[in-house]
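Moderator note: this is an archived Q&A kept for reference. The question asked for a predicted structure of one protein chain; the sequence and the answer are reproduced below.
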Amino acid sequence: MNRELRTFLAQELRASGSDKQPRIEGYAATFGTVAEIADKGGMFREVIQRGAFKRSLAAGDDVVCLIDHNPSLLLGRRSAGTLTLSEDTTGLKFAVELSDTSAARDAYQNLKAGNLRECSFGFYVDGLDGESWSLMPDGTPLRTLVSVGLFDVSVVTFPAYQNTSASARNVVAEHVEARMAAASAMTQDAARIQRAAALVASIAVEEASDALEDERLKLRYSNLFNN
């Protein structure tokens, strides 16, 4: 199971509830937004398909809510009833009832002050059919997340999925890195073949031009002697 992380500039992330029962809610992921992901193998684009979290939610996967994916900074847990998750037409919605801990109090106050604005989710692709690959019109690989298993949602300090921006904070699975490395190698090989073919064609054109000039000179000298 290859775990990955994706971070978004959160939609509707807010501190709600009351001081007696503080609450954080928002979207940990959104559907349909094409984002650029940079990894060691190269760059690709990625989109989350509506319904991608359906199986994981139905299975009752025990998801935790953290700060910066740090298990020491726990805000809530699905199995404890303090974290609720659901899908709607926008994406993966979450709400966490905060306990009276220093981490929870800090997160709540920082969110109210506007110091925290980003959300992230940790996932793994749910089997061979959990993702699909295609090509964008410009030739860039497009990965569609069809079905994923959740293991955490987090409020995070640093952005990654700001609209369509890439960031090193996105953690990519090994099989994706291998795919992109192979694609990059193929692109480089194709470019080398194209350059070699262009060079051969250029030499061929130059040789043909020289041969034509030789024929012209021969014809000119022949006409001089014949006259």
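Archived answer notes: The first strand starts at residue 3 and ends at 9.
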